[in-house]
């Protein structure tokens, strides 16, 4: 089965309003009409509307970097899934490693966010990935399977098609050292097999599994060519329009092969 690649940019806590608008405008101009693969950008919350306005007539989708699981109320600082829908978000990142390890989010909290996102009609991107110490201790598969299983708790087969998984080894994020295609493929194939066990083989074949961690123009082709890598979640390189577009173009070449 040919899965459509998704190249998503996670801008993290970067850009000013003007920089966000300029970056989005540049992307619309360069890659805004591409249909052979899916493209998304996830700006910081305050710039969702402004970026949404810039990309609204293009094929670039809007995503958010986080969400809360309650509808509304006394949750100072949080943003609901309905608010993200209101801002025209399609995607939402759940359980990014920076939220797991800096903010301290648990699998249970991430699962609640994911369930709420699906219920509101958003497309969550569930991030999983091991720490360097866990890899060195030979625990990668165990850690990642646990994050996947717990993150998907209560997600029915009927709605599973709205979920994307992103494998982002923590040691590869922002370090310039990406997982080798072999290392990434091994874990991503395991994730797909696990989805097959939790759900069924049809869902396992449909589900997109992205790779994230120091993806750049120079390594995008070899990573995206792996059978179980269905796109990229790009951090640093998504802040430079030229680099992000180059990664998208590498994705286009791979999907045409
Ligand atoms: P980098 O591409 O900067 O390594 O970040 C990856 C990431 O965390 C995307 O969510």
Description of the structure:
With 257 residues, the chain is of the alpha/beta class. The protein has one domain: TIM Barrel. Helix content is 44%, strand content 15%. The chain has eleven helices and eight strands. Strands 1-2-3-4-5-6-7-8 form an eight-stranded parallel barrel, surrounded by seven helices. β3, α3 (81-86) and β4 (91-94) form a beta-alpha-beta unit. α10 (217-224) runs parallel beside α11. The radius of gyration is 17 Å and the shape is globular. 42% of the residues are buried. The model has no long low-confidence stretch (mean pLDDT 97). The structure holds 1,3-dihydroxyacetonephosphate.
For the structure shown, list the relevant keywords.
single chain; 257 residues; alpha/beta; TIM Barrel; 8-stranded parallel barrel; 11 helices; 44% helix; binds 1,3-dihydroxyacetonephosphate
- Mass-distribution shape: globular
**Secondary structure tally: strands:** 8
**Count of runs of 4 or more consecutive helical residues:** 11
Structural class: alpha/beta
Secondary-structure element pattern, one letter each = EHEHEHEHHEHHEHHEHEH
* Strand order of the biggest β-sheet: 1-2-3-4-5-6-7-8
Strand content: 5-15%
Name every ligand kind in the structure. 1,3-dihydroxyacetonephosphate
Query: How many domains?
Result: 1
Estimated helix fraction: 40-55%
Instruction: Name the CATH class.
Output: Alpha Beta
The biggest sheet amounts to: 8 strands, parallel, barrel
**Average of per-residue pLDDT values:** 97
CATH topology description:
TIM Barrel
The CATH architecture classification is Alpha-Beta Barrel
Our measurement of the CA-to-CA distance between the termini, rounded to an integer number of angstroms, reads 14 Å
